[in-house]
Amino acid sequence: MFSAHDDGQGRKDGQPRSPRSSRLAYAILDTPPWYLCIFLGIQHFLTALGGLVAVPLILAKDLCLQHDPLTQSYLISTIFFVSGICTLLQVFLGVRLPIVQGGTFAFVAPSLAMLSLPTWKCPEWTFNASQVNTSSPEFTEEWQKRIRELQGVIMVASCVQMLVGFSGLIGFLMRFIGPLTIAPTISLVALPLFDSASNDAGAHWGISAMTIFLIVLFSQYLKNIAVPVPVYGRKEKCHTSKFYLFQVFPVLLGLCISWFLCFVFTVTNTFPSAPTAYGYMARTDTKGNVLSQAPWFRFPYPGQWGVPTISLAGVFGIIAGVISSMVESVGDYYACARLVGAPPPPKHAINRGIGIEGLGCLLAGAWGTGNGTTSYSENVGALGITRVGSRMVIVAAGCVLLLMGVFGKIGAAFATIPTPVIGGMYLVMFGVISAVGISNLQYVDMNSSRNIFIFGFSIYCGLAIPNWVNKNPDKLQTGILQLDQVIQVLLTTGMFVGGFLGFLLDNTIPGSLEERGLLAWNQTQESEDTTKASEIYSLPCGIGTKFCTSSCAQCVPFWPRREHLERGEVGVSQLTLVSQDSSGERPKCATETRM
After folding, report:
1. Which of 97, 90, 30, 53 is nearest to 332 (CA)?
2. What residues contact 149, with CB distance under 8 A and at least 6 apart?
3. Residues near 19 by beta carbon (within 8 Å), at least 6 away in sequence
4. What is the predicted pLDDT for the residue at 189?
5. Cβ atoms of 183 and 495 closer than 8 Å
6. CA atoms within 13 A of residue 292's CA, in its CB half-sphere
7. How would you write 344-375 as a 3-class SS string?
8. Are 508 and 122 in contact (CB under 8 A)?
9. Does residue 555 carry a pLDDT above 90?
10. What is the pLDDT of residues 128-180, one digit of tens each?
11. Calpha distance 216→210 (Å, rounded)
12. Residue 307's CB: how many other CB atoms inside 10 A?
């Protein structure tokens, strides 16, 4: 992030450094000064902020909360808090790489599909602000019973993810999942959300266009412009250093500037004051009372919305999201390992990471975020920008997330962002997610008519079939209510339809491994470098290295392997030289899937 950093904090003098390690201010096992940990931890929180805030706001309408910003702020605070817990669990007990955990867009599509069932559709009166009394027991029960249903299905689906992770099944499943399965799955996470994005942006296209312009300006045109900022170092004391502000915070800067201009236009009465007039939703005072109503401190707790309920249809839908999330996370693990100068994660670390993500989803369901958790690839990218790969920085980020979740005013502030500003951010964010999914095709031979057919057919059916099912739900009646709900949720989740067709066709239509892209896709995952792996990926406090090293423990899929421990005494310089390929590029399996 900065062009210069103080050296040597948490690092032994004279320690040999590899070419990749020398480009890092702090490697994964280094400990920066405490004040730098705090600052960089806050930065990681801000980097993840867009995705963390977006998920509850997307779900708000289908939870009947579009006119209740105070409850929206509670959901935002809760997702902050749970993300902090899950981040700390992942760093200490999971894959042990510096990865931030947060809400996942992979759960949004199946959640919206479940909430669109006739049983869970919001009553008409909840769409009329004049008829909504947010403090009435009737309204409270309307939104709480929906989020309790989400809680239950997420908790059950998370058990499947824990089973897949802790049992080692993820390695078996990855043999059959390639780019032609991943591309339509990830693209269809965002493509079906165009309706939500356009509706929010259409509240005032001028403000939305300005938000888009600012985000594009900062992230694309000004990303290489460094801004001088004052810093304090041990050797140079007070001096200036260059900070790539626009590259690190393009979304945050765009949101804040648009938000401020909306405030100015509201104060000057440029925007109409009539609730039915076009542009009214761009005013900042439409939700202004939420800041005064929100408590300064609010401690989220499990079961805060009541006892979770479960439906079979929702469970199957969320499981489709769980599979997508697991595949994305494995790619993030390899990307993160390269950026922080670590060897590729061994199988036991990947199994543990996926299992802990499942545990995180279980906690998210228990706390009632309305969503699960997954690895945030935008924060993985931030590691390359800041050149700080220390685990302690992510520990600090987890603590920051916990604190932000406890301060009620923080969540309330983000709940007051004007609707068209959010819509502009959605258009950029969902566009990037869709493109990232398609970018997986770079590993596939797209001159092959086989591959063109599989991708084109999968993604088109992922859009067409859910559209037809939503318009004709009565045509899928089997006479068994539960089965009807399962079918409707699965067939209205474009991510499941496209991903399933891509998986089925890719594994049944004849094609060579090179043609399917599996050779390039698996190249980095097949690395057997175990140098220093025990020091980085082993469990803390000597568990598995000094204690519990019996042969029985070695049979547990997520336990550190003995051969890794025996090879883990080699220097750091060998570690990074082996883990870096000749081109110096990031792993081919590493793709950013959330913005």
Report:
1. 97
2. 114, 120, 308, 309, 310, 311, 314
3. 576, 577, 580
4. 76
5. no
6. 4
7. CCCHHHHHHHHHHHHHHHHHHHHHCCCCCCEE
8. no
9. no
10. 877 888 888 888 888 999 999 999 999 999 999 999 999 988 877 777 888 89
11. 10
12. 8
Q: Tokens 């939503």 — which residue?
A: 470
Residue 275 burial by Cβ neighbours in a 10 Å radius (0-12, 13-18, 19+): exposed
What's the pTM? 0.72
Both structure tokens of 159: 């058990």
Tokens 């499942």 belong to residue: 358
Q: Token pair for residue 312?
A: 């079979």
Which residues are bridge partners to 243 per DSSP? 2, 227
Taking CA atoms, 208 is separated from 59, 273, 335, 366, in Å, by: 20, 19, 33, 35
Q: Which residue has the tokens 């309706």?
A: 195
Query: Residue 216 carries which side chain, given as an amino acid letter?
Result: V
Long-range contacts of residues 284-291, Cβ cutoff 8 Å, at least 24 apart:
284/259, 284/416, 284/418, 286/418, 287/69, 287/415, 287/416, 288/416, 290/69, 290/70, 290/72, 290/73, 290/412, 290/415, 290/416, 291/409, 291/412, 291/413, 291/416
Helix segments in 174-311, DSSP class H: 179-190, 194-201, 205-216, 245-248, 250-267, 289-293
CA atoms within 13 A of residue 283's CA, in its CB half-sphere: 21
What would the two tokens of residue 394 be? 């992510």
